[in-house]
Amino acid sequence: MSSPKCRAGHTGSMTLLSAIMGALMLAGLPAQVSAQQVLVQEPKLPTTAAEYDWGHNLYASSVLTPVSGYGALVRPDSVEPAIRDRTHAWIEQLQAAPVKGLQLDPMGELYVADGQDAMAKQQFADRLATKGLSLDDRGYTLLLATKVFAHPENAERIQTALGYMVQLDAFPAAAIMWKFHARAALGEAYYVTGDGPAVRVQLTKALAMTPDIPFEHRKPVFLESPITMLADVLSGVPGGAARIDSLGKVLLPLATPTAAQVASDSEYFWLGQYWTREFKGTLQLTAHLGQAAPAITAMHWYNTDAPTAVSTAAPGAQAKTLGDGVIRLMEFGEYSCYPCRMALPGMERIRTAAPSNVQVWYVTQTEGSWGATVYSPNDESQHLEHYYVERKHYGMPIALWAGPKDTTQDFGALPRDNPSAEAYPIQATPTFVVTDGKGIVRHISIGYSRQVETLLSSDIQYLIGEAKHQGSTAPASDRTAMAGQ
Predict the structure, then answer these.
(1) Do the bridges between strand 300-302 and strand 398-401 make them parallel or antiparallel, or are there none, so unpaired?
(2) Residue 173: what are its φ and ψ, rounded to 5°?
(3) Which residues contact 202 (CB under 8 A, 6 or more apart)?
(4) What pTM value is reported for the model?
């Protein structure tokens, strides 16, 4: 017998069918036409510029890989042309009907991706000219325009981006978050293309806004903070470490709410606790720049010999000290982090192109389960080894921390924290750390893109040259030092 829930569902379906049949008869259509046919013949809604723009971003960020007309994945060396062709086709489809309102913003981004800069500027101008547009809507459009034109390697485009930034700067104080995000975006664009002085200008201006940002909006200052990029660049400047230390001391108190704010809403207290803890970790991480790198601790060592030094962090743990004449690029990540896994093919590309005095490492950890099944550390390690080594065929050394599960205060169990991730410490993944042959930290960055991969390759090449000539002591992170400027 059907359950009451099943019977109710059946009754609902019959009621819907009866309604459709009634509508058919009122319209003068033959009643024998099925409801399925009617539903199939419903007009298809047109795809919007925002949907195509989202699709372009998924392809450009490597979340999706274009598929050819024969159903096969496009070869890696043909992905960018395939994305451009697809974007151009989308634009042509969208041009069949007027694009207006909110759709002007993503349409502008699509035009930039297609190389039609003049058309992109027109979309943004039309959006900004909309009658009655709010301050936030104008701020969003100018921020987006700044971001999509922020290509420092293209003189005309970066000047366009800076022009939009000038417009944002003229906005009242209420638009401060749009200004902050735009400055941070410019700083990141200059960072991945290696313009150290411009990074310092843009990110210093962004962080200088912090006291004027309402407390509840200060999250981007303290979580995945731009100060990491700024510290990486300043590490190549005389007195740079002291400047970052001073800036950190100015910013850290701004992560604490006032007593009046806490009295008004306890959420302020918890935000302050969280931001303070995370920002202290960021400052600890950046303090390693120019200093000896902490050892890497793990239980399992794939594609490399296990170190002989025993660690007291957990039974079976061993520690790998650096400074053995090998230049290292280390990615810190974990299996559940999609960007971490997305970066690994790029790390393999760097590894296979590097000489023998360069190693690319993946430093990772168990998480307590594999899929929905809880496993012991050793059993989970076998799954991870199979995935990274046998399935993906990564040849890079992998240091896997498989911490024992410690009892929590609510009688649960969690894997013991990875001492390597605590020593650096890792605030977000993937995090990349580059050390020279002496084991000195020369570069730290957070987040992955193909531009970051290029930057990391450039850092490696600089350190290779430095090791050969031993004539320069400037950290690889300062691109102006590399260029002799």
Answers:
(1) antiparallel
(2) -60, -25
(3) 183, 184, 186, 187, 190
(4) 0.84
